[in-house]
Amino acid sequence: MRKRKPKKRVIQPDPRFNDIMVTQFVNNLMWAGKKSTAFRLFYEAMDKIQERTGEDPHKVWKDALVNTTPAVEVRSRRIGGATFQIPTEIRASRKLSIGMKWLVRFSRARSGKGMAEKLASELIAASKNEGAAVKRKEDTHKMAESNRAFAHFRV
Q1: Residue 57: its pLDDT value, please?
Q2: What pLDDT was estimated at residue 78?
Q3: Parallel, antiparallel, or unpaired for β 82-89 and 72-79?
Q4: In this structure, are residues 83 and 76 in contact, taking their beta carbons and an 8 Å threshold?
Q5: How far apart are CA 99 and CA 64, in angstroms?
Q6: Which of 145, 24, 127 is nearest to 86 (CA)?
Q7: How far is CA 104 from CA 7, 52, 74, 115, 149, in A?
Q8: CB within 8 A of 56, min separation 6: which ones?
Q9: In sequence order, what are the residues at sequence separation of 6 or more whose Cβ sits closer than 8 angstroms to the Cβ of residue 90?
Q10: What is the CA radius of gyration of the chain?
């Protein structure tokens, strides 16, 4: 076990939207340490969103993020030889990081030409409460709801 908690790293805001959350999202999007490529992909996706919807792409991205962040999750806990799925609340920072990771993951899994195109499509779908990332959130919530009877085992 650690002696002390590691210090939180300070994340610099991105150049276009001046938002720390965008940089965090780009860090999740990044592949093999290529941050400038990840930023280029993200900004291309933002331009495509602007083209397609005519709305502010930053707002569409924020809406997509809000629609994909889960409130509860289930955690496995072994009690008396049986394993129970126990629903637990998620702390704020973990909610956001899970939502971002789902958006990136399901964007990569989408069909389409180029990552920017896929990301733009997933973000637009998520902002309208559609898409695979939103479905994953709903499935997680359903699972937590169905296992609500075991909530008293929470630690």
Answers
A1: 94
A2: 87
A3: antiparallel
A4: yes
A5: 9
A6: 145
A7: 26, 20, 21, 10, 33
A8: 50
A9: 70, 71, 72, 73, 98
A10: 18
* Beta carbons of 137 and 145 less than 8 angstroms apart: no
| Tokens describing residue 3 | 């002696």
Identity of the residue numbered 146: S
**In the CATH scheme, what architecture does the domain 20-27+34-153 have?**
Orthogonal Bundle (1.10)
Q: Using alpha carbons, select from 130, 155, 20, 17 the residue that is nearest to residue 76.
A: 155
What string of DSSP letters covers 85-124? EEEEE--HHHHHHHHHHHHHHHHHHS-SSSHHHHHHHHHH
Task: Report the predicted TM-score, pTM, of the whole model to 2 decimal places.
Answer: 0.90
- pLDDT per 10-residue tile (average), the chain, 155 residues: 89 93 95 95 95 94 95 89 88 93 94 92 94 94 86 71
Q: Give CA–CA dist 27/96, Å, rounded.
A: 13
What is the C-alpha end-to-end distance of the chain, expressed in Å?
Answer: 19
